[in-house]
Every structure is written in C-alpha cells, then in structure tokens.
Amino acid sequence: MIDPCTAGDPDQPGCLWTNLSRAQIAHGLQALGFRVSVVVVAQLLTRHRLGRRKALKTLPLGKHRCQDRQFQIIARYRDEFLTSPDPIVSIDTKHKEFLGLLFRVGRLYTRLARKALDHDFPSAAWGVIYPHGLYDLKRNCGHLNLGLSHDTSRFACDRIAYWWQEQGRFAYPEARRVLLLCDGGGRNASHRYVFKYHLERLADRLGLELRIAHYPPHCSKYNAIEHRLFPHVTRACQGLLLTSLQVAVKAMERTSTRKGLTTTVHVLDGDDPLKEGYPEEYRETMKIRFDEELPAWNYRAVPSKWDS
Questions:
Q1: Where residue 205 falls among pLDDT bands split at 50, 70, 90?
Q2: Pfam families annotated for this entry (predicted)?
Q3: Where are the alpha helices (DSSP H) in the chain?
Q4: Start-end of H helices in 220-303
Q5: E strands, 44-188, where?
Q6: DSSP H or E run through 209
Q7: Alpha-carbon span 99 to 212, nearest angstrom
Q8: In sequence order, what are the residues at sequence separation of 6 or more whose Cβ sits closer than 8 angstroms to the Cβ of residue 258?
Q9: Containing H/E element for 96?
Q10: End-to-end alpha-carbon separation of the chain, Å?
Q11: Which of 216, 215, 198, 210 is nearest to 299 (CA)?
C-alpha cells in the first residue's frame, strides 16, 4: 500500500516517511478489503517506523573561509574562562513581540478558547517589546531585558550593565573580565563602530575588561543563547495572547528546564534613537585592542584607568 509512496534519507538508515495521510491509507486499505480506522493506521505506521516529520533548518546560507578557525578560537576562550573566576555570557536579541490580541501558535489548558484577531497585522498591535537576552553559561541562568523603544547598540550595552549590577557582580565577586559571545550581525555586529564606542564606555562604567568574540557569518545558531534560552522562552509564551507588558513579563519569567535553567526579566525604560552615532574623531582615537588573529571578530575593551 505505502511502498510506492515511501521515501528515505540516504544519510540516515531507518529514517523513512510517506506523503500519504492516515485517511488516504485507510481508504486505500478499504479498497483492498481491510476496514480499519485512522487509529489503527497510526499504529501500523508506528510499527513500521514511519512518522510525520517536518523540514529542519540546518543548511547554512554560506560558509566563511575562516569559519573553522574562529570556532577554534572561541573554544579556546571558553576553556580559558571556564577555569577562571570570570563569567561567560552569550548575548543576542530575540525577535520582537507584539502586544495585543494577535494570534500566537500553541495551545493552553482553558475552559474557553481565547479569541484573537483574524489578521496579524503589526498595525493592530497595542505595543511592541524588544527582548534582549543574556545567558550565563557557567550558572545556566538566563536574563531578559525588555526594551520599549528600539534595539540599538547603546541598548545592548545598557542591558549588559544592568545584568552585571544586579546579578553578575554578586555571582562573580572576583571577576576582572567578561567573555561576551555575540553574533556577527545585528546591533552588536562586528563591523559597527558605534557598538565598539559604547563597549569602551561600558568597560569604564563596570571597571572590567570586556573580551568580545563574534561567531562567523551565518553561524548564529551556534551561539549558546540560541538553543539554551530562546527556545524555552518561546515555549513559555506559546498560545498566550500578550495583552499587556505584565502578561509578557510573567510568561517569560516562567522559562525553565528540568536541567535547572532559571530566567529573570526586567523592563528597561528609556528612548533609544535608531540613528545613533559616534564622535567624528572616534575612528582615530579608538582604544579597542584587536587580536592579532582574526581581529575583525576578536577584540577587547579595556577600562581607561588601566592604561594610566
């Protein structure tokens, strides 16, 4: 019945699927003299190791020639910081969330179904929030800063400062450095001078050396926060209509796993203009210390008082 409509993966023995639905299989079996329900068909499919599968987003858009070397450098930094009193922090911005009666994928246990708008137009939202995450690799702790204005480089540095003042300095009292693992693009892109400008001020503000390591282009999925925090935040909010900022905060604070992940949430007020800049003379006076190997992706911001 299903043999002509069965496919498999040549790289994964035993991985099979069929493009026939359970109803189609039941109807076909009926024509052959077997009257079975879709429940029985599901049992038969399981017995023959055939299941419903979705496509996997695993194919990269491209590969940089220095990609493998950068992964080796990041691994070396992680090993160095794991044996030190200094934290390792993975940072990134999650996709923006709209407040209002906009539909969200997922199901909840309720007596009555919640009613959402029949169109998910952003113009129908009551507001928008920008969740920026920090994931502490050593403590398996996540922190989300919810911005109400725009996702900018200054906002990225402000949220790091808040995390350090509220959590980091107590968890790492002997720290003198912080390893920041970032994507290669976005507001904390490796080529943005405005990000480096605010990093220098952040280093002075915290009195810490900031060691920056960017993941190569098209490799953001390897950043720890992408698979250790953000998927669980999405799961905590699935099916829930974010009708207010308070609802969003409470939902995201519930983010946890059986392996001990805990999450804190804070709302960052303030207006962050999109067209942010840096002084005209900054490129000539920049004090960022670049590594000798792959300097575009690896560099440090050192407090000014350390130079004196």
A1: very high
A2: DDE_Tnp_ISAZ013
A3: 22-31, 38-47, 67-82, 153-163, 169-171, 193-206, 224-228, 230-237, 245-253, 282-285
A4: 224-228, 230-237, 245-253, 282-285
A5: 88-93, 97-99, 127-136, 141-147, 177-182
A6: strand 209-214
A7: 33
A8: none
A9: none
A10: 80
A11: 210
For residues 106 and 49, give the distance between their C-alpha atoms in angstroms, rounded to a whole number.
27
- Alpha-carbon distance 152 to 267, whole Å? 15
Pairwise CA distance, residues 62 & 307, whole Å: 40
Long-range interactions of 231-238: CB distance < 8 A, separation 24+: 232/142, 232/256, 232/257, 232/261, 232/263, 233/94, 233/131, 233/133, 233/142, 233/144, 233/263, 237/97, 237/104, 237/106, 238/104, 238/105, 238/106, 238/107
State the Cα–Cα distance between residues 188 and 68, nearest whole angstrom. Answer: 21
Contact 37, 257 (CB under 8 A): no
pTM: 0.80
Mean pLDDT of 257-267: 92
CATH class of 67-306: alpha beta
Would you list the DSSP string of 261-274? -EEEEEEE-S---S
Tokens, residue 189 = 């892109």
pLDDT single digits (tens) 142-198: 999 988 877 788 888 888 999 999 999 999 999 999 999 998 887 788 888 889 999
Residue carrying structure tokens 């858009």: 61
- Nearest-Å Rg of the Cα atoms of the chain is 24
The full set of domain ranges for the chain reads: 3-47, 67-306
Compute the half-sphere exposure of residue 54: CA atoms within 13 Å on the CB side of its CA. 2
How far apart, in whole angstroms, are the C-alpha atoms of residue 114 and residue 127? 19
Task: Report the candidate in 72, 122, 66, 68 with the shortest Cα–Cα distance to residue 97.
Answer: 122
